[in-house]
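Re: Re: token formats

Sure, here are both.
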Amino acid sequence: MYFKANGVELYYEKAGQGNPVVLLHGNGEDHSIFDVLTEQLSLSNTVYAIDSRDHGKSSKVKGLDYNSMMEDVAMFIQELDIQKPVLYGFSDGGIIGLLLAIKYPTVLSKLIISGANTHPNGIKAVIRFLINIVYFFTRNQKYKMVLTQPNITNVELNTIVVPTFVLAGSKDFVKETHTRNIAKNIHNSVLKIVECESHTSYVIHSEKLFKIIKPFLDEPES
């Protein structure tokens, strides 16, 4: 299905019935990375898996930035009248989730992020070096975005009021100190470092993620 938001068409898939959950993929991916998770969640929830702008089947654009991507999701939730969804964002999707919770504090019921960073320096130096090389040769705007954005401050994180579950792999390319700082500055947050997992290993086409996030999903809203 398609939804028009802010001049672009977003492709999304909807499955299941129950309390709504919105899934946001990472950089260079699409909604299909959540096929396993969607199948599991859809037994008890209505799941909306979105392709971000310039990803998957959604519209291509000339320039990318996280704030525009966040506004796409905000409009998607508003126009489809999705009441108080849980948002799970992986990597870039987690960044979008943080920005949404900062600007629109009453839209979500809960936020789950994994492998997200609030500044390019939150990514380990060796990974940034490799991305720089790839960007030098490709000039791909997706890599440029990673190298220059986001710029979310601790003060902005302090404004998030929605219950938040902060995840990262112990072998993630986001620095663990950075992940811990995110959780520390969101007052109503829970942190889990998933042992022996990388940035993607427990997320993409994985049955592990559902078991990790299900207890948080099932917690009564405070």
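Second one below.
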Amino acid sequence: MNKLFSRLSIKEQTLFIKRLSFLIRAGMPILESLRLLRSSRSKGKTKIFDQIIKDVENGQSLAASMGKFSYIFGDFAINIIRVGESAGILEKNLSYLADELKKKQELRRKVISSLIYPCFIVVATFGIVMLLLTFVFPKVLPVFSSLKVSLPWPTKAVIFFSGIAINYGFYILAGVAAVAVIFWLLSKKSETVKLIIHRLILRLPLIGKMSQSYQLSNFFRTFGLLLKSGVTVSSSVLIVAESVSNLVYKIEFQKLSKNMAKGKKISFELNKKTHLFPEIAVQMISTGEYSGNLSETLLYLAELYENEVEELTKNLSSAIEPALMVFMGLLVGFIAISIIMPIYQITQNLSI
């Protein structure tokens, strides 16, 4: 099956899990529930459900059949379902899972939406500047040349950059696009390049803090839900490591899982990396370990960092947008002044 055309979005996965939980709670058998849910899918996606239905008909568990599509559902969802089946609480775990997927979707949407407008402003600014340099300014330049006056330095600077934009603009854009594509491919293929990028993101002002809070909220919520569902500590951390998007945290979680298997405490290990795991989180986890209420502590921390992400997205917009507007105004204003200054000098000479 082609993986590219058989993907399910997080929204589609959430709806599927939520509806399956509702049908099972209503007393409908799993097989009949799957058949009912299959009927509303597109042709490409019904193949996924056909395979799951076929496996369940042949006596396989729901988790085992969905495990063949781990690239769609992920190890986290499959393990939650496996524990639910073995413990006889499948409907409850499906409900937990649907809520978790919905929260992840909302969190991701907030982060992306906070970055859209600043990116639009940057693109619009450079688009306007290129338009002025390649179309507007060259129309005015012959007037200055014909009068043979000494031009001010802002005008000379704009003439220089206008010449570059007209003569080499296409090659510069093509080069930037080629570098961006190569860099993107390297980030997909090379773990070293990806690690460098992810480290850089965590060190950026505002964006780095937001990325850290986003990773921590996902880690704590997923970890807490796995523990609540009966998955062991070391296995939970390993599942979380496979589901996080930042490679820096993925490596740390993989190390953490190995140390958990040796009997070491989570708080002790996290305390070694205070730049990745804030002190307040480590202290609360330590309290949860001693009180035997670690899963609830982790879920509380997840809520805490989700709220922090929401606040940071608001602050990011309010901090970046004015700065970008000022930058845009200065850039466009500089070009406008470079045109106005020679005209002003010419009118002054004519009046004399």
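The longest helix spans residues 90-147. DSSP finds 14 helices and no strands in the chain.
- S.
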